[in-house]
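User: I'm new to structure prediction. If I give you an amino acid sequence, what do you actually give back? Let's try with this one:
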Amino acid sequence: AVDATNPEATEERDAPLKTIALTISASQTPFKMGEAVKFSHRFENKGETSVLLLKALDGSAEGRRYPHVFLEVKDAGGTPISQSPGCGRCGNLNQLVEADFLELKPGESKDLLEGGFPYWPLRVDRPGLYRATLVYRLKEPFTSDANMNGPVSGEVQKRLVRVPRGELRSNTVALEFKE
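Assistant: Good question. You get back a string of structure tokens that encode the predicted 3D arrangement of the chain. For your 179 residues, that looks like this:
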């Protein structure tokens, strides 16, 4: 077992993240302005050992909890387009539980959400060509109840120690929006 509190174990714990591929695809293109964009998003383990990950959860898209999982969108000129929800939230987040983890065996591919919180808005304000990349970021060490939205079970603590930290970036998909 890897001890997450041991700095020497960090490289060993985080190395498996390099074997994970994150891919997205759009349901179609072009889209009409205002039409919802549906993405598929998958993790694939290209390594030789199982890897334990956290699913995208309530608050992940807004950067309110780890993992941060969000769309990075740029227009045809490469200018970033804000994907901020632009609305308030209640402030409540679900407590971390065993079902929030996703284990990928070697060669296995699974949906990033898999029962998690499905919130992937895409906001553009004018027709044109855009590029979207999905980012999965888990860099925060889980050292307090605040990071986990309250006390968690011993089994959740054990799983957290095994989850690699770092950032994954998906392939980039081209999206066209028309009037």
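You can read the tokens as a compact description of the fold. Here is one thing that stands out. Residues 154-162 form the longest helix (9 residues).
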